[in-house]
Write a structure and sequence with these properties.
- It contains five helices and five strands.
- It is α+β, with helices and mostly antiparallel strands.
- It has a single domain, classed as Thiol Ester Dehydrase, Chain A (Roll).
């Protein structure tokens, strides 16, 4: 992972894509969001969604999984180059969660993250606070998911004293 100083507002990274199959939608829904339009094709067709729809929480979970996998890939690459790896802190939360269009069985969603703001923490100046807009776009180019996430990112000042 990168340090706070290594990132700029406007930087964007594609983190991967995922195809939401009927089986995956139903499995997630059965455990975490057992609403009729997530569990049954006919109920989905009769709903406002017009088809078997993935839970918004499923879409968000897939986004998080792909973000973590991409971060792990970046850390492996940095370690292979001999770079110092920045170990990020926790997230203090998110805002503006939007499920903009239904994700239906068979849809492939591509996820990306773009840095929208950054600042040094007033109470912990060894940390920066990064805001990123995480989005998901379907195979038709339609934005289906968006969330503004916040994370603590270590500053190089930690390394230099």
């Amino acid at each position: 992972m990168r340090f706070f100083e290594d990132m700029e507002v406007g930087q964007r990274r594609e983190v991967g894509s995922f195809t939401f199959t009927a089986a995956a939608i139903k499995k997630f829904a059965a455990q975490f969001d057992p609403q009729r339009f997530h569990l049954d094709e006919e109920e989905g067709r009769k709903s406002l969604f017009g088809g078997l729809a993935a839970s918004g929480w499923h879409v968000g979970s897939v986004c998080m999984s792909l973000l973590v996998a991409d971060a792990q890939r970046q850390m492996r690459e940095a370690a292979a180059r001999g770079d110092k790896i920045a170990v990020w802190g926790p997230s203090p939360g998110f805002r503006e969660l939007r499920w903009l269009k239904p994700v239906l069985a068979g849809d492939t969603i591509s996820f990306a993250s773009e840095i929208v703001s950054k600042r040094i923490s007033a109470s912990r100046p060894q940390w920066g606070i990064l805001e990123g807009r995480n989005t998901g776009t379907n195979q038709r180019g339609e934005l289906v998911y968006s969330v503004l996430a916040t994370a603590f990112v270590p500053r190089r000042v930690n390394e230099d004293g």
